[in-house]
Amino acid sequence: xxxxxxxxxxxxxxxxxxxxxxxxxxxxxxxxxxxxxxxxxxxxxxxxxxxxxxxxxxxxxxxxxxxxxxxxxxxxxxxxxxxxxxxxxxxxxxxxxxxxxxxxxxxxxxxxxxxxxxxxxxxxxxxxxxxxxxxxxxxxxxx
Length: 143
Fold this sequence. Notes:
Layout: E1 2-5, H1 7-15, H2 20-29, E2 34-37, H3 39-49, H4 52-55, H5 60-73, E3 75-76, H6 94-102, E4 106-108, H7 112-115, E5 123-124, H8 126-135
Parallel strand pairs: 1-2, 1-4, 2-3, 4-5
């Protein structure tokens, strides 16, 4: 299985090593799924981690190291130039839908604008993906 983790999931993993998002990163490191990132996703992650309220919790050097590690170790895909197969109510999320569709990956997010699309595209919350991996690690959701 391939998965695109929304920046909010990656940020949650950086903030707490005990939460579900962090357990997802551990599952990825253990080979349970392929993590796909793109330049736009890494840029969003860096931008968000630089916000003052997050920079107080994740020091800039740690944030940079986290984003660089993801860029080196996850599968780096190009940013999808085309429109998404389904649009989010938040146009800023459309690049994630395009990336997941182009890479035939599950989109993992806690964002309600994306999780509401679950009947139309393969999108899961972090907890849903962990449960899916536990029950059948070979599951794939894109046709």
